[in-house]
Amino acid sequence: MSNSIKKIGVMTSGGDSPGMNAAIRSVVRTCAYHNVKCVGIYRGYEGVMDGDFKDMDARSVKDIVNKGGTILKSARSKDFRTPEGRKIAHQKLKNAGVDALVVIGGDGSFNGGLIFNQEFDFPVIGIPGTIDNDIFGTSHTLGFDTALNTVVECIDKIRDTASSHNRLFFVEVMGRDVGHIALNAGIGAGAEEILIPEENLGLERLLESLQRSKRSGKSSSIVVVAEGDKIGKNVFELKDYVETNLDEYDVRVSVLGHMQRGGPPSCFDRVLASRMGVKAVESLLEGKSSVMVGLSDGKMILTPLEQAVKGKSQINRELLRVSEIMST
Ligand code: ATP
Fold first, then answer.
1. Which residues line the pocket of ligand 1, CB cutoff 6 A?
2. Handedness of CA 78, 47, 102, 127 (dihedral sign)
3. Which of 50, 79, 121, 132 is catalytic?
4. Which listed residue, of 42, 170, 232, 308, carries a Cα 20 to 30 Å from 56's Cα?
């Protein structure tokens, strides 16, 4: 492994997600394992510009593998979007002797890291942390699996009340641009319909599908709706539309909101975070930079940050078909 990197900074940026703490722990412990110093940077790029750094050793990350959120806090920074802000950030890192950055966040955070790397030839590696799973170059982002488990647990509970009252529930889940959470959790929770931004089912077909469900003997229904679904303006409009057109239905809406982001990470996310942290630090020590760590076919891979930022994560068409068959 290369000796040119003596101190690595680790930070979390953008929206938090379960598994970020496990990734911080992994980065810190991998640094300790390879006798490389590590500093935690608070509040993402804001903290870089403020020099808000803290030396971290293996013991400083005890008892966090199971915690949601991020002990380093996260932030969104306007100033880092400016060349002046990034110049200050570079100076602060130099002053603190930090030679490389591990950025745990979403595609916006990687965009910032990419620009910073290009401007200052400063080594940056990304770890994808977002519940939306909307990043190109990895089958799973940190927090996605935990969010799915949270959503499935909530829908199981909603189903109890739906079937007790013969009700139709629209359950809105996160996913402004992508429907990964809706599609996976919808299948896992046995939803009758799943509405995602990638596929516009159309209001007419939704009504037909609900009528078919009723005819087939179903007494209650769950429709999972991704935030960014294009079929109606929002989930409450959908409720009004269905109640107006299908008066046999008693419709309720449940917006799951921020609870999807919180909670202890699943075992899958803890293992993934641990693997990604090791891969990120060891890749930096091997001289790699401007790449993102990802999971593909069960293996750790690297994708250039530029591709990770520009590429689009695709919805799994096989899952769409499975969901259609399951709602028969
Ligand atoms: P989430 O999944 O929650 O959206 P994200 O990492 O995509 O996470 P953003 O708010 O898009 O979140 O980005 C986080 C931060 O990265 C921004 O606040 C900003 O400081 C930095 N950043 C994003 N885009 C750029 C850019 N083009 N140039 C410089 N910095 C950027």
1. 13-15, 45, 76-77, 80-81, 105-109, 111-112, 115, 130
2. negative
3. 132
4. 308
- Ligand 1 atom closest to Cα of residue 116: 29
pLDDT at 123: 98
Going by C-alpha positions, the residue among 65, 7, 68, 18 that lies closest to residue 41 is 7
Largest CA distance in the chain: 71
Where do the domains of the chain lie, and which CATH numbers do they carry?
7-143+265-310 (3.40.50.450), 146-261 (3.40.50.460)
Question: Which regions in the chain score pLDDT beneath 70?
Answer: 1-3
Query: How does pLDDT run across 235-291, given as a tens digit for each residue?
Result: 999 999 999 998 888 899 999 999 999 999 999 999 999 999 999 999 999 999 999
Residues 6 or more apart in contact with residue 255 via CB below 8 angstroms: 172, 235
In 3D, which of 78, 120, 77 has the Cα closest to residue 98? 120
Q: 241, exposed or middle or buried, with CB in 10 Å at 0-12, 13-18, 19+?
A: middle
State the helix-helix crossing angle for 235-245 and 203-215, rounded to 10 degrees: 60
User: Whose CA is closest to atom 20 on ligand 1?
Assistant: 77
Q: What share of the chain is helix, strand, coil (3-state, %, to 5)?
A: 45, 20, 35
Residue type, 51: G
